[in-house]
Write a structure and sequence with these properties.
Elements (H helix, E strand, L loop, with lengths): L13 E8 L2 E12 L1 E5 L4 E4 L6 E2 L6 E2 L4 H14 L22 H5 L19 H13 L13 H15 L3 H10 L8 E2 L12 E2 L9 E2 L7 H5 L9 E3 L1 H12 L3 E2 L2 E2 L3 H8 L7 E2 L2 H4 L8 E5 L3 E6 L4 E7 L12 H15 L8
Antiparallel strand pairs: 1-2, 1-16, 2-5, 3-4, 6-10, 7-10, 8-9, 11-12, 13-14, 14-15, 15-16
Helix pairs in contact: 1-4, 1-5
């Protein structure tokens, strides 16, 4: 991966790409800066660069805020409970969360067909306590803005609700479920919920109003998503931090039918349930970030901070791209670099001209 531009608006300050096929890691590259700016200056519309001796380069093992890639871990934790016979995908959510309207099932949470709106301002009740924040969810869930079972409508609330279901069902917090069921067995030592010590962690945003939803300053090792922060940093939709190397292991686990080395976290049928259309937590065949990998059952997800993950069972390949596109301020940088990386991988795997050397 070539060095990242120093112009006015590069797509990100820094990034890591890890890609592979079968047991082989073909690409493992880092470029740019984990920490480049100390603040954002709204007067100039630019980041305020740190002195070069205080900047920190991205390394392959740099830890990134995963943002919505967290949803994949929550989905896996849910399917693990299905394997154990403790959870039925077609059970009504009201069985565990009585405020939820009839017709909202666990499956509809995972397929974003519950009818719940995209998000709610939990961060606006940060000083009022968790009960006050969740009261917003209960009100929405009692009367969804669209009927359950309708068209796909992406919503963070689905995975927040699923978190609450899992915690009620098991009597354990989501971070414990993720640790005991996923990161522990797979030895993903770089993957956990925050807050983390800043060392080795990519910075995200100088989070201030009016461009952000809270005034928190420059974030590094604290979850970027304001609602995940308001929920204590452990949430079903966001909150996890990880490395590209750890996520590559997760990808290989999925491509191996749920096993990696001597560890098995899922049965092959459960992996198929997660990745087959329409996907459970995973999205399937989306060219906007999967590029030319899309079209034959590729599955994955993106994260608002600049992250993405794709697994393609048709070619036994995976791609992890972690970036801090919101450093020093959030903006809509699009997904063109994600799609371009996926297309280059697809061409390399299929042996098309110009594939591996681009």
């Amino acid at each position: 991966m070539r060095g990242l531009p120093e112009g006015r608006s590069p797509w990100c300050a820094g990034a890591v790409v890890v890609a592979g096929r079968g047991p082989v890691v073909a690409v493992e590259e880092a470029a740019g800066w984990a920490v480049r700016y100390g603040a954002y200056d709204p007067e100039t519309g630019r980041g305020v660069p740190l002195p070069r001796d205080l900047c920190e380069p991205v390394r392959v093992g740099t830890v990134f805020d995963l943002a919505s890639l967290t949803k994949l871990f929550t989905a896996i934790a849910a399917v693990q409970q299905v394997e154990r016979g403790a959870l039925d995908l077609d059970a009504e959510v009201a069985r565990w969360l009585p405020a939820f309207a009839p017709g909202i099932t666990v499956r509809r949470l995972l397929t974003h067909t519950s009818g719940l709106r995209a998000e709610l301002p939990f961060y606006s009740r940060q000083r009022e306590g968790r009960a006050a924040r969740l009261a917003l969810l209960w009100a929405e869930a009692a009367a969804p803005s669209t009927p359950p079972g309708g068209p796909y409508r992406y919503s963070d609330l689905n995975l927040i609700a699923l978190q609450l279901v899992l915690e009620d069902l098991t009597g354990r917090r989501l971070d414990v479920l993720v640790r005991d069921g996923i990161t522990g067995p797979l030895a993903l030592a770089g993957t956990s919920y925050g807050p983390l010590s800043p060392a080795g962690v990519a910075a995200t945003e100088d989070q201030r109003r009016p461009w952000a939803k809270a005034d928190r300053g420059l974030l590094r090792g604290e979850v970027h998503d304001e609602n995940a922060w308001a929920l204590g940093g452990v949430a079903g939709h966001a909150g996890l931090f990880s490395t590209a190397q750890d996520l590559a292991v997760l990808c290989r686990t999925l491509l191996n039918g749920g096993a990696y080395g001597t560890a098995r976290i899922l049965r092959p049928a459960s992996v198929a349930a997660l990745l087959d259309p329409p996907g459970l937590g995973f999205v399937v065949d989306q060219p906007y970030f999967m590029g030319a990998l899309a079209g034959r059952g590729a599955a994955g997800h993106t994260g608002f901070t600049g992250t993405s993950l794709v697994v393609d069972r048709a070619t036994d390949t995976f791609l992890v791209l972690l970036a801090n596109t919101v450093h020093p301020r959030r903006r809509d940088g699009g997904s063109a670099p994600r799609a371009a990386a996926a297309t280059r991988l697809a061409r390399a795997v299929r042996g098309e001209a110009g594939g591996a050397g681009e």
